[in-house]
Amino acid sequence: MTARPEATVALTGVTRRYGAVRALDGVDLTMTTGVTGLLGPNGAGKTTLLRMLATVLAPTEGRLRLLGLDPAEPHERTDVRRSLGYLPQEMGFPSGFSAFRFVDYMAVLKEWTEREARHHEVRRVLDLVGLGDLSTKRLKTLSGGQRRRAALAQALIGDPRLLVLDEPTTGLDPEQRASLRGVLSAAGGESTVILATHQTEDVAALCERVIVVDGGRVRWDGTVRDLVATALGKVWLADAPTPGAQSSWRTGTGRHRNVGASAPPDAELVEPTVEDAYLLLLGEAALSRAKGAVDSEVAA
Amino acid sequence: MSTATPTSGWHADPELLGQYLRGEAGAALGSSVEAHLLRCDTCRGRIRPLVDPAPLGDVWARIEDTVQAPRPGLLHRLVRRLGVPDHDALLLAAAPSLRAGWLWGTAIALLFAAVAAGQGGSRGAVFFLMVAPLVPVAGVAVSYGPDIDEAYEPTLAAPYSSSRLLMLRSLAILLTSVPLAALGGLLLPADNWSAWSAATWLLPAAAGVALTLAGSTWTTPTRAGTAVAVAWFVVVGAVSSPEGTTAAALLTGPALSLYAAVALAAAVVFQARSGRLAVMGRNA
User: Does residue B222 sit in the same domain as residue B192?
Assistant: First the structure.
Protein backbone atom coordinates (compact mmCIF):
# COMPACT_ATOMS: atom_id res chain seq x y z
CA MET A 1 0.00 0.00 0.00
CA THR A 2 1.42 3.37 -1.00
CA ALA A 3 1.58 6.16 1.55
CA ARG A 4 -0.99 8.86 1.06
CA PRO A 5 0.75 12.14 0.14
CA GLU A 6 0.54 14.80 2.82
CA ALA A 7 -2.01 17.52 2.10
CA THR A 8 -0.37 20.83 1.23
CA VAL A 9 -3.70 22.66 1.28
CA ALA A 10 -6.54 21.82 3.66
CA LEU A 11 -9.77 23.78 4.09
CA THR A 12 -12.37 22.72 6.63
CA GLY A 13 -15.74 24.46 6.62
CA VAL A 14 -14.21 27.66 5.25
CA THR A 15 -16.65 30.53 4.84
CA ARG A 16 -15.94 34.07 3.78
CA ARG A 17 -18.59 36.73 4.13
CA TYR A 18 -18.62 40.24 2.68
CA GLY A 19 -21.40 41.84 4.68
CA ALA A 20 -24.46 39.69 4.06
CA VAL A 21 -22.96 37.98 1.01
CA ARG A 22 -21.28 34.59 1.44
CA ALA A 23 -18.53 34.55 -1.18
CA LEU A 24 -17.48 31.12 0.09
CA ASP A 25 -19.85 28.92 2.02
CA GLY A 26 -18.52 26.03 4.08
CA VAL A 27 -15.87 24.79 1.68
CA ASP A 28 -13.97 21.57 2.48
CA LEU A 29 -10.97 20.81 0.27
CA THR A 30 -7.59 19.13 0.41
CA MET A 31 -4.82 19.28 -2.18
CA THR A 32 -1.41 17.73 -2.68
CA THR A 33 1.24 18.23 -5.34
CA GLY A 34 0.07 18.53 -8.93
CA VAL A 35 -1.87 20.99 -11.03
CA THR A 36 -5.48 21.70 -10.08
CA GLY A 37 -7.82 23.80 -12.20
CA LEU A 38 -10.48 25.94 -10.60
CA LEU A 39 -13.48 26.65 -12.80
CA GLY A 40 -16.60 28.66 -12.13
CA PRO A 41 -18.61 31.59 -13.43
CA ASN A 42 -17.79 35.18 -12.50
CA GLY A 43 -18.67 35.82 -8.86
CA ALA A 44 -18.56 32.12 -8.00
CA GLY A 45 -15.97 32.60 -5.26
CA LYS A 46 -12.83 31.51 -7.16
CA THR A 47 -10.86 34.67 -6.46
CA THR A 48 -11.91 34.71 -2.81
CA LEU A 49 -10.69 31.12 -2.49
CA LEU A 50 -7.38 31.91 -4.18
CA ARG A 51 -6.83 34.99 -2.02
CA MET A 52 -7.19 32.80 1.04
CA LEU A 53 -4.73 30.27 -0.34
CA ALA A 54 -2.39 33.21 -0.98
CA THR A 55 -2.72 34.24 2.71
CA VAL A 56 -3.90 37.76 1.84
CA LEU A 57 -7.48 37.17 2.96
CA ALA A 58 -8.59 35.52 6.19
CA PRO A 59 -11.61 33.21 6.38
CA THR A 60 -14.59 34.50 8.34
CA GLU A 61 -15.22 30.97 9.62
CA GLY A 62 -13.55 27.59 9.28
CA ARG A 63 -10.03 26.29 9.35
CA LEU A 64 -7.32 26.75 6.76
CA ARG A 65 -3.94 25.02 6.71
CA LEU A 66 -1.30 25.63 4.07
CA LEU A 67 1.87 23.53 3.76
CA GLY A 68 1.03 22.07 7.15
CA LEU A 69 0.95 25.52 8.79
CA ASP A 70 -1.75 27.81 10.13
CA PRO A 71 -1.77 31.13 8.23
CA ALA A 72 -3.76 32.76 11.05
CA GLU A 73 -0.58 32.64 13.17
CA PRO A 74 1.78 35.46 12.15
CA HIS A 75 5.01 33.43 12.23
CA GLU A 76 3.47 30.45 10.45
CA ARG A 77 1.93 32.80 7.88
CA THR A 78 5.36 34.24 7.14
CA ASP A 79 6.72 30.71 6.73
CA VAL A 80 3.92 29.89 4.28
CA ARG A 81 4.71 33.06 2.34
CA ARG A 82 8.34 31.98 2.02
CA SER A 83 7.13 29.01 -0.04
CA LEU A 84 4.33 30.77 -1.90
CA GLY A 85 3.98 32.23 -5.38
CA TYR A 86 0.86 34.27 -6.08
CA LEU A 87 -0.49 35.83 -9.25
CA PRO A 88 -3.59 37.92 -8.51
CA GLN A 89 -6.37 38.38 -11.04
CA GLU A 90 -5.59 42.05 -11.55
CA MET A 91 -2.21 43.51 -10.96
CA GLY A 92 -0.56 46.86 -11.49
CA PHE A 93 3.12 47.70 -11.56
CA PRO A 94 5.11 50.48 -9.93
CA SER A 95 5.27 53.44 -12.30
CA GLY A 96 8.26 53.54 -14.62
CA PHE A 97 9.50 50.05 -13.75
CA SER A 98 10.88 47.64 -16.33
CA ALA A 99 10.03 43.94 -16.15
CA PHE A 100 13.46 43.28 -14.63
CA ARG A 101 13.11 45.94 -11.94
CA PHE A 102 9.61 44.82 -11.06
CA VAL A 103 10.57 41.17 -10.65
CA ASP A 104 13.73 42.29 -8.83
CA TYR A 105 11.53 44.33 -6.46
CA MET A 106 9.28 41.35 -5.81
CA ALA A 107 12.36 39.16 -5.22
CA VAL A 108 13.49 41.57 -2.49
CA LEU A 109 10.08 41.23 -0.86
CA LYS A 110 10.63 37.48 -1.04
CA GLU A 111 13.81 37.91 0.98
CA TRP A 112 16.34 37.58 -1.82
CA THR A 113 18.68 40.18 -0.41
CA GLU A 114 21.96 39.04 -1.98
CA ARG A 115 22.15 41.05 -5.19
CA GLU A 116 23.90 38.72 -7.65
CA ALA A 117 21.90 35.65 -6.62
CA ARG A 118 18.71 37.70 -6.80
CA HIS A 119 19.47 39.03 -10.26
CA HIS A 120 20.34 35.52 -11.43
CA GLU A 121 16.94 34.31 -10.21
CA VAL A 122 15.16 37.28 -11.80
CA ARG A 123 16.75 36.48 -15.15
CA ARG A 124 15.81 32.81 -14.75
CA VAL A 125 12.11 33.45 -14.18
CA LEU A 126 11.96 36.10 -16.90
CA ASP A 127 13.49 33.58 -19.31
CA LEU A 128 10.95 30.98 -18.16
CA VAL A 129 8.04 33.19 -19.19
CA GLY A 130 9.80 34.27 -22.39
CA LEU A 131 10.54 37.84 -21.37
CA GLY A 132 14.33 37.56 -21.19
CA ASP A 133 14.85 39.76 -24.26
CA LEU A 134 12.30 42.37 -23.14
CA SER A 135 13.34 42.59 -19.52
CA THR A 136 14.73 46.12 -19.75
CA LYS A 137 11.69 47.58 -21.51
CA ARG A 138 9.35 49.66 -19.42
CA LEU A 139 6.28 47.65 -18.51
CA LYS A 140 3.91 50.30 -19.77
CA THR A 141 5.38 49.92 -23.27
CA LEU A 142 4.74 46.14 -23.31
CA SER A 143 1.58 44.43 -24.52
CA GLY A 144 -1.07 43.14 -22.11
CA GLY A 145 0.12 39.57 -22.58
CA GLN A 146 3.73 40.55 -21.92
CA ARG A 147 2.76 42.40 -18.75
CA ARG A 148 0.78 39.35 -17.65
CA ARG A 149 3.89 37.23 -18.15
CA ALA A 150 5.95 39.68 -16.07
CA ALA A 151 3.34 39.34 -13.32
CA LEU A 152 3.59 35.56 -13.63
CA ALA A 153 7.38 35.68 -13.46
CA GLN A 154 7.28 37.18 -9.97
CA ALA A 155 5.07 34.30 -8.82
CA LEU A 156 7.69 31.79 -9.99
CA ILE A 157 10.58 33.28 -8.00
CA GLY A 158 12.31 30.62 -5.92
CA ASP A 159 10.28 27.66 -7.26
CA PRO A 160 7.53 28.00 -4.66
CA ARG A 161 5.97 24.87 -3.14
CA LEU A 162 2.53 26.45 -3.41
CA LEU A 163 1.69 28.33 -6.60
CA VAL A 164 -1.63 30.20 -6.66
CA LEU A 165 -2.54 31.66 -10.04
CA ASP A 166 -5.68 33.63 -10.81
CA GLU A 167 -6.33 33.53 -14.56
CA PRO A 168 -2.69 33.22 -15.61
CA THR A 169 -3.44 32.82 -19.32
CA THR A 170 -5.54 35.96 -19.74
CA GLY A 171 -4.21 37.97 -22.66
CA LEU A 172 -1.76 35.32 -23.83
CA ASP A 173 -1.69 34.12 -27.44
CA PRO A 174 -1.89 30.37 -28.20
CA GLU A 175 1.88 29.97 -28.45
CA GLN A 176 2.42 31.73 -25.14
CA ARG A 177 -0.29 29.65 -23.52
CA ALA A 178 1.33 26.45 -24.75
CA SER A 179 4.67 27.63 -23.40
CA LEU A 180 3.08 28.50 -20.07
CA ARG A 181 1.52 25.07 -19.85
CA GLY A 182 5.01 23.62 -20.06
CA VAL A 183 6.20 25.82 -17.19
CA LEU A 184 3.22 25.03 -14.98
CA SER A 185 3.21 21.30 -15.64
CA ALA A 186 6.91 21.21 -14.72
CA ALA A 187 6.14 23.13 -11.53
CA GLY A 188 3.32 20.71 -10.71
CA GLY A 189 5.79 17.84 -10.46
CA GLU A 190 7.14 19.10 -7.13
CA SER A 191 4.65 21.78 -6.07
CA THR A 192 0.96 22.33 -5.52
CA VAL A 193 -0.27 24.48 -8.37
CA ILE A 194 -3.81 25.81 -8.37
CA LEU A 195 -5.04 27.99 -11.18
CA ALA A 196 -8.39 29.65 -11.69
CA THR A 197 -9.36 30.12 -15.29
CA HIS A 198 -12.21 30.52 -17.73
CA GLN A 199 -10.17 28.63 -20.35
CA THR A 200 -11.53 25.10 -20.13
CA GLU A 201 -9.02 23.93 -22.75
CA ASP A 202 -6.19 24.93 -20.38
CA VAL A 203 -7.76 22.75 -17.72
CA ALA A 204 -8.11 19.85 -20.15
CA ALA A 205 -4.51 20.19 -21.32
CA LEU A 206 -2.84 20.80 -17.99
CA CYS A 207 -4.74 19.79 -14.89
CA GLU A 208 -4.91 16.43 -13.19
CA ARG A 209 -7.79 17.60 -11.06
CA VAL A 210 -10.59 20.08 -11.54
CA ILE A 211 -12.73 21.86 -8.97
CA VAL A 212 -15.87 23.67 -10.06
CA VAL A 213 -17.12 26.39 -7.74
CA ASP A 214 -20.46 28.12 -8.01
CA GLY A 215 -22.36 30.23 -5.53
CA GLY A 216 -19.52 29.93 -3.02
CA ARG A 217 -19.71 26.14 -2.91
CA VAL A 218 -17.79 23.31 -4.51
CA ARG A 219 -20.00 21.76 -7.21
CA TRP A 220 -17.46 19.30 -8.57
CA ASP A 221 -14.16 17.94 -7.37
CA GLY A 222 -12.46 15.17 -9.29
CA THR A 223 -10.28 14.29 -12.23
CA VAL A 224 -10.70 15.97 -15.58
CA ARG A 225 -11.50 12.60 -17.12
CA ASP A 226 -14.33 11.98 -14.63
CA LEU A 227 -15.75 15.46 -15.26
CA VAL A 228 -15.76 14.86 -19.01
CA ALA A 229 -17.38 11.45 -18.44
CA THR A 230 -20.40 13.17 -16.87
CA ALA A 231 -21.20 14.60 -20.31
CA LEU A 232 -20.96 11.32 -22.23
CA GLY A 233 -24.10 10.83 -24.29
CA LYS A 234 -25.18 14.42 -23.68
CA VAL A 235 -23.46 16.18 -26.57
CA TRP A 236 -24.65 15.74 -30.11
CA LEU A 237 -24.58 17.30 -33.55
CA ALA A 238 -27.72 18.21 -35.44
CA ASP A 239 -28.69 20.25 -38.45
CA ALA A 240 -30.63 22.66 -36.24
CA PRO A 241 -30.78 23.61 -32.56
CA THR A 242 -32.54 20.86 -30.66
CA PRO A 243 -35.45 22.02 -28.50
CA GLY A 244 -34.69 21.28 -24.87
CA ALA A 245 -30.91 21.41 -25.26
CA GLN A 246 -29.24 23.38 -22.53
CA SER A 247 -26.76 25.02 -24.92
CA SER A 248 -26.69 25.02 -28.69
CA TRP A 249 -24.51 26.79 -31.21
CA ARG A 250 -23.71 26.64 -34.90
CA THR A 251 -20.21 25.28 -35.51
CA GLY A 252 -17.84 26.10 -38.32
CA THR A 253 -19.12 23.11 -40.33
CA GLY A 254 -22.62 24.57 -40.34
CA ARG A 255 -23.99 21.95 -37.99
CA HIS A 256 -25.26 22.69 -34.49
CA ARG A 257 -23.53 21.35 -31.42
CA ASN A 258 -26.08 20.65 -28.72
CA VAL A 259 -25.38 20.08 -25.04
CA GLY A 260 -28.23 18.86 -22.88
CA ALA A 261 -29.30 16.46 -20.20
CA SER A 262 -30.78 13.99 -22.70
CA ALA A 263 -29.97 13.59 -26.38
CA PRO A 264 -32.73 12.58 -28.82
CA PRO A 265 -32.74 8.80 -29.55
CA ASP A 266 -31.36 9.18 -33.08
CA ALA A 267 -28.84 11.93 -32.22
CA GLU A 268 -25.33 11.89 -33.64
CA LEU A 269 -23.38 11.76 -30.38
CA VAL A 270 -19.91 13.30 -30.21
CA GLU A 271 -17.04 13.23 -27.71
CA PRO A 272 -17.71 15.76 -24.96
CA THR A 273 -15.12 18.29 -23.84
CA VAL A 274 -14.40 19.80 -20.43
CA GLU A 275 -16.42 22.81 -21.52
CA ASP A 276 -19.46 20.65 -22.34
CA ALA A 277 -19.28 18.97 -18.96
CA TYR A 278 -18.80 22.31 -17.24
CA LEU A 279 -21.83 23.82 -18.98
CA LEU A 280 -23.95 20.82 -18.07
CA LEU A 281 -22.79 20.90 -14.47
CA LEU A 282 -23.50 24.59 -14.05
CA GLY A 283 -26.86 24.22 -15.75
CA GLU A 284 -27.78 21.53 -13.24
CA ALA A 285 -26.42 23.66 -10.40
CA ALA A 286 -28.47 26.64 -11.57
CA LEU A 287 -31.57 24.45 -11.74
CA SER A 288 -30.80 23.06 -8.30
CA ARG A 289 -30.40 26.58 -6.90
CA ALA A 290 -33.67 27.68 -8.49
CA LYS A 291 -35.40 24.60 -7.09
CA GLY A 292 -33.94 25.30 -3.65
CA ALA A 293 -35.20 28.89 -3.80
CA VAL A 294 -38.70 27.70 -4.77
CA ASP A 295 -38.70 25.05 -2.02
CA SER A 296 -37.68 27.52 0.63
CA GLU A 297 -40.33 29.96 -0.63
CA VAL A 298 -42.98 27.24 -0.41
CA ALA A 299 -41.77 26.24 3.05
CA ALA A 300 -41.96 29.86 4.17
CA MET B 1 61.72 27.85 -6.35
CA SER B 2 61.54 28.85 -10.02
CA THR B 3 62.93 32.09 -11.29
CA ALA B 4 60.51 34.85 -12.08
CA THR B 5 61.49 35.51 -15.68
CA PRO B 6 59.49 33.49 -18.18
CA THR B 7 61.57 32.50 -21.16
CA SER B 8 60.92 30.41 -24.22
CA GLY B 9 60.48 26.79 -23.12
CA TRP B 10 60.18 27.82 -19.49
CA HIS B 11 57.13 26.75 -17.49
CA ALA B 12 55.99 27.64 -13.99
CA ASP B 13 56.22 24.74 -11.56
CA PRO B 14 53.25 23.70 -9.36
CA GLU B 15 54.77 25.36 -6.29
CA LEU B 16 54.97 28.74 -8.01
CA LEU B 17 51.50 28.36 -9.46
CA GLY B 18 50.24 27.54 -5.96
CA GLN B 19 51.90 30.66 -4.55
CA TYR B 20 50.37 32.71 -7.35
CA LEU B 21 46.89 31.33 -6.68
CA ARG B 22 47.17 31.96 -2.95
CA GLY B 23 48.36 35.52 -3.58
CA GLU B 24 51.71 34.76 -1.95
CA ALA B 25 53.91 35.31 -5.01
CA GLY B 26 54.38 39.04 -4.43
CA ALA B 27 53.60 41.85 -6.85
CA ALA B 28 56.56 41.44 -9.24
CA LEU B 29 56.58 37.65 -9.38
CA GLY B 30 52.77 37.48 -9.48
CA SER B 31 52.48 39.84 -12.46
CA SER B 32 55.26 37.94 -14.19
CA VAL B 33 53.42 34.62 -13.76
CA GLU B 34 50.20 36.24 -14.91
CA ALA B 35 51.84 37.59 -18.07
CA HIS B 36 53.29 34.15 -18.77
CA LEU B 37 49.91 32.41 -18.24
CA LEU B 38 48.32 34.62 -20.84
CA ARG B 39 50.55 33.19 -23.57
CA CYS B 40 51.33 29.66 -22.32
CA ASP B 41 48.79 26.87 -22.96
CA THR B 42 50.85 24.37 -20.95
CA CYS B 43 50.82 26.49 -17.77
CA ARG B 44 47.13 27.32 -18.17
CA GLY B 45 46.51 23.57 -18.37
CA ARG B 46 48.61 23.06 -15.22
CA ILE B 47 46.87 25.75 -13.21
CA ARG B 48 43.34 24.73 -14.17
CA PRO B 49 43.01 21.76 -11.75
CA LEU B 50 44.52 23.86 -8.96
CA VAL B 51 41.81 26.51 -9.19
CA ASP B 52 38.81 26.28 -6.86
CA PRO B 53 35.76 26.61 -9.16
CA ALA B 54 33.48 28.14 -6.48
CA PRO B 55 35.04 31.62 -6.37
CA LEU B 56 35.27 31.58 -10.16
CA GLY B 57 31.51 31.03 -10.30
CA ASP B 58 30.99 33.99 -7.99
CA VAL B 59 33.29 36.17 -10.07
CA TRP B 60 31.49 35.16 -13.24
CA ALA B 61 28.09 35.84 -11.60
CA ARG B 62 29.27 39.34 -10.69
CA ILE B 63 30.57 39.98 -14.20
CA GLU B 64 27.33 38.66 -15.70
CA ASP B 65 25.31 40.83 -13.34
CA THR B 66 27.34 43.94 -14.11
CA VAL B 67 26.94 43.40 -17.83
CA GLN B 68 23.31 42.28 -17.91
CA ALA B 69 21.50 43.99 -15.03
CA PRO B 70 19.69 47.10 -16.19
CA ARG B 71 20.75 50.42 -14.71
CA PRO B 72 18.69 51.25 -11.63
CA GLY B 73 16.36 54.26 -11.74
CA LEU B 74 17.39 57.72 -10.55
CA LEU B 75 15.70 57.49 -7.14
CA HIS B 76 17.16 54.02 -6.58
CA ARG B 77 20.67 55.30 -7.37
CA LEU B 78 20.27 58.41 -5.21
CA VAL B 79 19.08 56.42 -2.22
CA ARG B 80 21.92 53.93 -2.67
CA ARG B 81 24.45 56.76 -2.70
CA LEU B 82 23.13 57.83 0.67
CA GLY B 83 24.29 54.47 1.99
CA VAL B 84 20.97 52.63 1.94
CA PRO B 85 21.43 48.93 1.00
CA ASP B 86 20.52 48.03 -2.56
CA HIS B 87 17.46 45.94 -1.61
CA ASP B 88 16.00 48.65 0.66
CA ALA B 89 16.65 51.26 -2.04
CA LEU B 90 14.59 49.16 -4.44
CA LEU B 91 11.70 48.98 -1.97
CA LEU B 92 11.77 52.77 -1.62
CA ALA B 93 11.94 53.30 -5.37
CA ALA B 94 8.59 51.51 -5.72
CA ALA B 95 6.82 53.79 -3.21
CA PRO B 96 4.23 55.98 -4.94
CA SER B 97 4.94 58.92 -2.61
CA LEU B 98 8.67 58.89 -3.30
CA ARG B 99 8.44 59.48 -7.01
CA ALA B 100 9.52 62.72 -8.61
CA GLY B 101 5.94 63.81 -9.35
CA TRP B 102 4.91 63.56 -5.74
CA LEU B 103 8.04 65.31 -4.46
CA TRP B 104 7.56 68.17 -6.95
CA GLY B 105 3.92 68.45 -5.87
CA THR B 106 5.00 68.63 -2.23
CA ALA B 107 7.57 71.33 -2.96
CA ILE B 108 5.10 73.42 -4.97
CA ALA B 109 2.37 73.12 -2.31
CA LEU B 110 4.79 74.23 0.39
CA LEU B 111 6.13 77.08 -1.70
CA PHE B 112 2.57 78.23 -2.30
CA ALA B 113 1.81 77.99 1.43
CA ALA B 114 4.96 79.91 2.35
CA VAL B 115 4.29 82.66 -0.19
CA ALA B 116 0.69 82.93 1.02
CA ALA B 117 1.94 83.12 4.60
CA GLY B 118 4.44 85.83 3.70
CA GLN B 119 1.76 88.00 2.11
CA GLY B 120 -1.04 87.25 4.53
CA GLY B 121 0.55 88.25 7.81
CA SER B 122 -0.80 86.37 10.81
CA ARG B 123 -3.59 84.72 8.83
CA GLY B 124 -1.06 83.56 6.28
CA ALA B 125 1.00 82.02 9.04
CA VAL B 126 -2.07 80.10 10.22
CA PHE B 127 -2.47 78.82 6.69
CA PHE B 128 1.13 77.61 6.67
CA LEU B 129 0.62 76.09 10.09
CA MET B 130 -2.30 74.10 8.73
CA VAL B 131 -0.45 72.86 5.68
CA ALA B 132 3.07 72.06 6.87
CA PRO B 133 2.31 69.24 9.35
CA LEU B 134 0.09 67.55 6.79
CA VAL B 135 2.85 67.19 4.22
CA PRO B 136 4.52 64.18 5.86
CA VAL B 137 1.09 62.84 6.86
CA ALA B 138 -0.03 62.88 3.24
CA GLY B 139 3.24 61.26 2.13
CA VAL B 140 2.82 58.40 4.58
CA ALA B 141 -0.86 58.03 3.64
CA VAL B 142 0.01 57.37 0.01
CA SER B 143 3.12 55.28 0.58
CA TYR B 144 1.47 51.88 0.90
CA GLY B 145 -1.93 50.21 0.83
CA PRO B 146 -4.52 48.52 -1.35
CA ASP B 147 -5.75 51.76 -2.91
CA ILE B 148 -2.26 53.13 -3.61
CA ASP B 149 0.27 50.38 -4.16
CA GLU B 150 -0.07 49.01 -7.68
CA ALA B 151 1.30 45.61 -6.69
CA TYR B 152 -0.30 45.52 -3.25
CA GLU B 153 -1.64 41.96 -3.27
CA PRO B 154 1.53 40.12 -4.28
CA THR B 155 3.43 42.42 -1.93
CA LEU B 156 1.15 41.34 0.89
CA ALA B 157 1.61 37.67 -0.05
CA ALA B 158 5.41 38.01 0.20
CA PRO B 159 7.21 37.21 3.48
CA TYR B 160 8.58 40.75 3.84
CA SER B 161 6.93 42.43 6.83
CA SER B 162 4.18 44.86 5.79
CA SER B 163 4.77 47.00 8.86
CA ARG B 164 8.49 47.18 8.12
CA LEU B 165 7.75 48.21 4.54
CA LEU B 166 5.36 50.93 5.71
CA MET B 167 7.87 52.14 8.32
CA LEU B 168 10.73 52.15 5.82
CA ARG B 169 8.75 54.21 3.36
CA SER B 170 7.44 56.50 6.10
CA LEU B 171 10.98 57.18 7.26
CA ALA B 172 12.08 58.00 3.73
CA ILE B 173 9.10 60.31 3.33
CA LEU B 174 9.94 62.12 6.55
CA LEU B 175 13.52 62.52 5.34
CA THR B 176 12.32 64.15 2.12
CA SER B 177 9.22 66.10 3.15
CA VAL B 178 10.38 67.49 6.51
CA PRO B 179 13.37 69.36 5.02
CA LEU B 180 11.09 70.72 2.29
CA ALA B 181 8.55 71.91 4.86
CA ALA B 182 11.33 73.35 7.02
CA LEU B 183 12.62 75.31 4.03
CA GLY B 184 9.08 76.60 3.47
CA GLY B 185 9.00 77.71 7.11
CA LEU B 186 12.19 79.67 6.66
CA LEU B 187 10.54 81.64 3.87
CA LEU B 188 8.04 83.11 6.32
CA PRO B 189 8.45 86.82 7.15
CA ALA B 190 10.76 87.60 10.04
CA ASP B 191 8.14 88.36 12.66
CA ASN B 192 6.97 86.48 15.72
CA TRP B 193 5.45 83.70 13.64
CA SER B 194 8.54 82.62 11.81
CA ALA B 195 10.48 81.93 14.97
CA TRP B 196 8.27 79.03 15.93
CA SER B 197 6.60 78.05 12.71
CA ALA B 198 9.90 77.02 11.12
CA ALA B 199 10.37 74.24 13.65
CA THR B 200 7.57 73.70 16.13
CA TRP B 201 5.13 72.30 13.59
CA LEU B 202 7.33 69.19 13.63
CA LEU B 203 5.59 67.91 16.77
CA PRO B 204 2.04 68.05 15.35
CA ALA B 205 3.52 66.48 12.18
CA ALA B 206 5.01 63.65 14.26
CA ALA B 207 1.68 63.13 16.01
CA GLY B 208 -0.13 63.15 12.65
CA VAL B 209 2.25 60.59 11.12
CA ALA B 210 2.04 58.33 14.18
CA LEU B 211 -1.77 58.56 14.16
CA THR B 212 -1.81 57.73 10.45
CA LEU B 213 0.37 54.67 11.05
CA ALA B 214 -1.76 53.56 14.00
CA GLY B 215 -4.96 54.16 12.00
CA SER B 216 -3.54 52.01 9.18
CA THR B 217 -3.96 48.97 11.41
CA TRP B 218 -7.74 49.51 11.28
CA THR B 219 -8.21 50.88 7.78
CA THR B 220 -6.08 51.85 4.77
CA PRO B 221 -3.27 54.40 5.26
CA THR B 222 -5.08 56.71 2.82
CA ARG B 223 -8.24 56.76 4.91
CA ALA B 224 -6.29 57.09 8.14
CA GLY B 225 -4.30 60.03 6.73
CA THR B 226 -7.48 61.69 5.47
CA ALA B 227 -9.08 61.37 8.90
CA VAL B 228 -6.00 62.89 10.53
CA ALA B 229 -6.01 65.79 8.03
CA VAL B 230 -9.70 66.52 8.58
CA ALA B 231 -9.25 66.42 12.35
CA TRP B 232 -6.30 68.80 12.09
CA PHE B 233 -8.24 71.29 9.94
CA VAL B 234 -11.11 71.20 12.42
CA VAL B 235 -8.80 71.85 15.38
CA VAL B 236 -6.92 74.69 13.67
CA GLY B 237 -10.18 76.22 12.41
CA ALA B 238 -11.77 76.03 15.85
CA VAL B 239 -8.99 77.87 17.66
CA SER B 240 -8.08 80.43 14.99
CA SER B 241 -9.16 84.05 15.34
CA PRO B 242 -9.32 86.36 12.29
CA GLU B 243 -5.99 87.82 13.39
CA GLY B 244 -4.45 84.43 13.76
CA THR B 245 -3.22 85.18 17.24
CA THR B 246 -5.07 82.43 19.10
CA ALA B 247 -3.74 79.85 16.67
CA ALA B 248 -0.40 80.42 18.33
CA ALA B 249 -1.84 78.46 21.23
CA LEU B 250 -1.52 75.38 19.02
CA LEU B 251 2.23 75.72 19.12
CA THR B 252 2.86 76.63 22.72
CA GLY B 253 4.02 74.53 25.66
CA PRO B 254 0.88 72.62 26.70
CA ALA B 255 -0.16 71.88 23.12
CA LEU B 256 3.35 70.70 22.23
CA SER B 257 3.30 68.33 25.18
CA LEU B 258 -0.03 67.01 23.99
CA TYR B 259 1.36 66.33 20.48
CA ALA B 260 4.31 64.49 21.97
CA ALA B 261 1.98 62.37 24.12
CA VAL B 262 -0.28 61.61 21.15
CA ALA B 263 2.71 60.66 18.98
CA LEU B 264 4.01 58.33 21.67
CA ALA B 265 0.63 56.72 22.33
CA ALA B 266 -0.05 56.25 18.61
CA ALA B 267 3.39 54.72 18.11
CA VAL B 268 2.66 52.22 20.89
CA VAL B 269 -0.69 51.35 19.31
CA PHE B 270 0.97 50.89 15.91
CA GLN B 271 3.62 48.62 17.40
CA ALA B 272 1.00 46.53 19.19
CA ARG B 273 -1.29 46.20 16.18
CA SER B 274 1.21 46.17 13.31
CA GLY B 275 0.59 42.47 12.63
CA ARG B 276 -2.86 43.42 11.36
CA LEU B 277 -1.29 45.00 8.30
CA ALA B 278 -0.40 41.55 7.04
CA VAL B 279 -3.85 40.33 5.98
CA MET B 280 -6.68 41.96 4.07
CA GLY B 281 -10.24 41.94 5.31
CA ARG B 282 -9.16 42.03 8.94
CA ASN B 283 -12.24 44.06 9.84
CA ALA B 284 -14.70 41.46 8.61
Answer: yes
Nearest to A41 by CA among A259, A250, A289: A289
B104 domain-assigned? yes
Asked if B247 and B258 count as a contact pair (C-beta separation under 8 A), the reply is no
The domain ranges of chain A are: 1-83+161-220, 91-159, 230-299
Q: Which residue did the predictor score with more confidence, B254 or A199?
A: A199
Question: Which CATH architecture fits A1-83+161-220?
Answer: 3-Layer(aba) Sandwich (3.40)
Is residue B154 assigned to a domain? yes
Same domain, B273 and B211: yes
Q: Establish if A60 touches chain B: CB-CB under 8 angstroms.
A: yes
Cα-based distances in Å from A297 to A288, A293, B271, B283: 14, 6, 51, 33
Kindly report, residue by residue over A122-145, the tens digit of the pLDDT.
999 999 999 988 888 889 899 888
User: Is B178 inside a domain boundary?
Assistant: yes
> How open is the CA angle B165-B168-B169, to the nearest 5 degrees?
85
CB B259 within 8 A of CB B203: yes
Establish whether this prediction's ipTM goes over 0.90. Answer: no
**CA angle at A21 for the pair A227 and A15, rounded to the nearest 5°:** 60
> Do residue B151 and residue B28 come from a single domain?
no
- Among B56, B68, B75, B87, the residue to mutate for chain A (most A Cβ within 10 A): B87
Nearest Cα residue to A51 out of B238, B154, B21, B273: B154
Distances (CA, A) of B126 to A271, B182, B243: 78, 15, 9
A156-180 per-position pLDDT tens digit: 999 999 999 999 988 888 888 888 8
Do residues A64 and A52 lie in contact, with contact meaning Cβ atoms separated by under 8 Å?
Answer: yes
Mind telling me how many Å the CA of B175 is from chain A's nearest CA? 21
How close A174 gets to chain B, by Cα (Å)? 26
Same domain, B256 and B154: yes
- Cβ within 8 Å, pair B154-A123: no
User: Measured between beta carbons, which residues in chain B are less than 8 angstroms from residue A152?
Assistant: none
- Between B153 and B256, whose confidence is greater? B153
From A18, A55, A60, residue closest to B157, measured CB to CB: A55
Higher pLDDT, A24 or B148: A24
Give the mutation candidate from B150, B273, B277 for the A interface (greatest A CB count, under 10 A): B150
Has residue B83 been placed in a domain? Answer: yes
A16, A95, A106 member nearest B99 (Cβ): A95
Cβ <8 Å between B87 and A115? yes
Are A109 and B155 within 8 A, CB to CB?
yes
Among the ranges given (A139-153, A181-195, B99-113), the one the predictor scored with the smallest mean pLDDT: B99-113
Residues B82, B59, single domain; the answer is: no
Q: Which domain holds residue B21?
A: 14-68
Kindly list the residues from chain B whose CB atom is less than 8 angstroms away from the CB atom of residue A57. 279-281
Q: Please give the residue of chain B at the shortest CA–CA distance from A153.
A: B154
As for how many domains chain B has, the answer is 2
Looking at the fold, whether B64 and B85 belong to one and the same domain comes out as no
Together in a domain, B233 and B112: yes
